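so the lab meeting is tmrw and i was supposed to have these ready like two days ago... anyway. pasting both below. for each one the top line is the aa sequence and the line under it is the structure tokens. i havent really looked at them closely yet so no promises
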Amino acid sequence: MNRDHLEGGLRHLRGRAKTATGAVRGNPGSQLEGAYNQAAGAAQYAYGEARDAVRDLRHGGEHLVEEGRSRFRDVSARGRDLADEAVERGQHYRDRAVHHGRHLAARADENRGTTLALVAAVAFAVGWLARPSR
């Protein structure tokens, strides 16, 4: 409830009283002035209602905006956490691949003869499978 609400209601009531007093006394000028004040009071009261409605809508809108900001911050933080986790996992898998690759290279270097025979056998098998059939 705001100032226009109260003043409009009071003006409307005073206008009704003045209209009734004018009717009882037989004074048309007082009746007219009372009717004018009734209408003006009703308009002011309606204006107060509109102000309250706009204030409530604005408050609701501000609440929605703040809720949206809060959710965005939550989603943004979660996205950063997921990105950090993905980077950590990528580094872990890269480190494992490098380790396994070095281990495999070391084993191949230790067993040169076996590695050479294995590579030759694989090359022969691929060549034999890739030859055109008759």
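ok protien two:
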Amino acid sequence: MPAALAEVVSDFADVQGQDKLKLLLEFADDLPDLPADLEEAAMEPVPECQSPLFLHVDASDTEHVRLFFSAPAEAPTTRGFASILAAGLDGQPKDDILAVPDDFYSELGLAALISPLRLRGMSAMLARIKRRLRATP
């Protein structure tokens, strides 16, 4: 797991109960804005998410993969998940992202607080990122 993602997982391990939800909402507030030259219409939708979520994977430099996410403010859980992936994986090498365990999100300790359907949304985001990276030479 890349160090940045391991740090996020550690941050979640350091808090308990409802504080985990507060931390997730803090991440939601920190989701980076899209760059001016990237429109949501050009991004890939992630229909497995409960709320509208779009992602874009720029692997033109496989040593520094760029990840971009768009989710509405009224979808804080989805935004939080996207922000976790952005904080932990944006700028990382392709091979390091591909090596992230598919179920890493279980280490966040949110299963008791978030519905399994919502957690599957985070899994779907990571799966789509990996699929895009595997299609990149």
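from a quick look at the 2nd one: The chain is about 45% helix and 10% strand. Residues 116-134 form the longest helix (19 residues). will dig more after coffe
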